[in-house]
Design a protein that fits this description.
The chain has seven helices and two strands.
């Protein structure tokens, strides 16, 4: 399991969470973590999750992950309706996919303490395992089965 996270990936994740909280009028409770991460970026240092507790951020990040996952399927309709440039659509999809990739990587490769985030990890791994079984990709299904056991 990972103990250190690429600082740029982590900042991508935390900025998305902060942006969604701002749009929704919610209080962002991770300001000190954001400031520490930004200082690490200046030094090009990884974030050590043994030192920095990110479980609560990951719980908040899951809500963003779900919303982006749902929004991703509506992006084409949105851009067709309001006639925005295609470059904007491509950039938006690229950013959504990057967030999803970073979030999924952390969920699959980090060990968390909070029971709520561990439950989310198990649920995500179970969904992926079931999908792999459906498409008869048993090697990856076994990988997710082992991850579920590790959580």
């Amino acid at each position: 399991m990972k103990q250190k996270i690429d600082i740029n990936d982590f900042l991508n994740l935390i900025y998305w969470v902060k942006t969604f909280f701002s749009f929704e009028g919610k209080k962002f409770n991770h300001e000190s973590l954001l400031q520490q991460a930004e200082s690490y970026q200046l030094k090009n240092t990884s974030l050590d999750i043994e030192i920095h507790h990110i479980d609560d951020l990951m719980i908040d990040g899951y809500a963003v992950y779900n919303k982006l996952h749902l929004a991703k399927s509506s992006v084409n309709d949105m851009f067709n309706t309001i006639e925005l440039p295609l470059q904007s659509k491509d950039l938006l999809l690229k950013e959504i996919l990057m967030y999803e990739k970073v979030y999924e990587d952390l969920m699959e490769n980090c060990k968390f303490e909070d029971p709520e985030i561990r439950g989310i990890q198990k649920g995500m791994a179970t969904e992926k395992m079931n999908h792999c079984v459906e498409i008869e990709d048993y090697e990856n299904a076994a990988k997710y089965r082992d991850l579920i056991k590790a959580y």
